[in-house]
Amino acid sequence: MGLEAEPLAAPHPYWPRDLEIGRYVPNDRPTWHSLAFLFSVSAALLALTWGAAGWRGWTGAPMRPGRRLALCWFAICGFIHGVIEGWFSLYHMDIPGDQSFLSQLWKEYAKGDSRYIIEDNFTVCMETITAWAWGPLSLWTVLAFLQRQPHRYILQLVVSLGQLYGDVLYFYTEYREGFAHSEMWHPLYFWFYFVFMNALWIIIPSILLLNAWGHLSAAQRALDSVKAKRH
Fold first, then answer.
1. What is the pTM of this model?
2. Is residue 78 a contact partner of residue 1, using CB atoms and an 8 Å limit?
3. pLDDT above 90 for 126
């Protein structure tokens, strides 16, 4: 009885090029499908949240443009963290061979960071925390500002700090591996997928973190001033 030949792994577009990916099935949807889905849903959430933040029935007075943009950011984060990253958290083991829409979206993004196609331990843990902690808390932050809940800036600070911390680790772990999981300098996969789309979670949370710090510090100074006048 002869030895049975092992099936050859399907060729893949990921880096490093000698990466072995079992059960891999190439996407049957074009790249623009994934990008159109991501940006169209984000645009719809931006428009809805912008309108809600400007409605007097919610806040008593329309919010300033900067605050409305911040709420739009948290609404989009709630969608990306809860739905897209939530999918990865639940189905990361099946993504290489799965052809459902969100799995194909992740296989497309993995061209910029192949850790998402190989069940990398750090990536799975980081995305799981992001999906089930920062996703719901992002939506709560939107609601807290719309209803002027007293803990709204605490939520903004906690969510922004968590996002910033996770993204710093995301970049730093890949730096320590020599950016081995992406095609260096590729305009779409490296610069847009890996650098630009993730740099947003460095820049914007940093701004919102400082903003929350300022508001909470001002509130504490006001409270200290009232207490001092009483004595």
1. 0.89
2. no
3. yes
